[in-house]
# Entry
Amino acid sequence: MAVGIFDSGLGGLTIHRAIADRMPDLPLVYLGDSANAPYGVRKADDIYDLTTAATQRLFDEGCDLVILACNTASAAALRRMQEGWVPKGKRVLGVFVPLIEALTERQWGDNSPPREVAVKHVALFATPATVSTRAFQRELAFRAIGVDVEAQACGGVVDAIEEGDFVLAEALVRSHVDALKRKMPSPDAAMLGCTHYPLLAEAFQDALGPDVQVFSQANLVAASLADYLERRPEMRGNGTESRFLTTGDPKRVSDRAMQFLGRSITFEPA
Ligand code: DGL
# Structure
């Protein structure tokens, strides 16, 4: 057994890396659905079907706990999965609540009523499917009042990253930040609501300017998982083997991952 980490493609590796850095002894099984990426332009039902199939694959691999290291799956499928699909004894967690908790200065499990927080104007950058669910806004509204959120659907960025075309990805980031600034000229914080985007964090920060605090998820999710496993150590499993699985071409995905993480990883067919 191990903890499963799922993403539509390579983006979840940003979360995997932060978790592995924080808990080097925790066995992790990563599954990237590169054959079906990007998810961000798909319909919610389609995202649900793909996400449940991938999560089942990780359960079959012996994982009791699966992290959806994909905001699109977390936003479009997680609640439906938790309400009617996740089998007894298994757990599926998403990635955007830790980000919202950081933005709203809350600890895990603080369910007190929404209150005023330091940030007032927040830019959200995410995939078109994530933006259309309004899940970030909903989670934020449970915790904070008086926060104005402007969401920018960043079409094309995930495709460019999956293709390894960072010149295009950075150009798209600049144009999406320009579009956001036309709607919200002076955000005081920005959320990178897609696990692929930490690779472009510098491009986002440059385009937004030094006064905007950019929140990205990897370390927040790793801290939140460490905390969760302290409370629920039985969900950790007792396996020792970490693996990387892909629905795409293992060689091609392994080459891209090298570019992504700066170290070599060997993907196996899922
Ligand atoms: N990394 C996924 C996310 O966090 C990208 C989704 C996609 O495949 O478009 O949303």
About this structure: The first strand starts at residue 3 and ends at 7.
